[in-house]
Amino acid sequence: EGVLHFQPEELLRTISVPISKDDFWESTLEFKVVLTRPRQTRLGNHLYICTVHVIDDDSFPTNKYSKDVRDMDSILEVSGVGLLL
Prior knowledge:
This protein is of the alpha+beta class. The chain has helices at about 65-70, 80-85, and strands spanning about 30-35, 50-55. It starts with about 30 loop residues before the first strand and ends with a helix.
């Protein structure tokens, strides 16, 4: 939650949202950014809200083979049983 100020003729602003880093895979996280209570302007009918999707950078189900999975040439060397352990 916060306040975002636009200068006259300014059309674009950037916001930063801190995201915690961990080593555990999680499904995609999403949240909404909603602009409300405009002053001396108006918001479009659909342009006041957006959904942000955060894609996890960890491997499923574990990071144990993450280097192998990212290297597609060596992915065949990872045993299927090993992925479950």
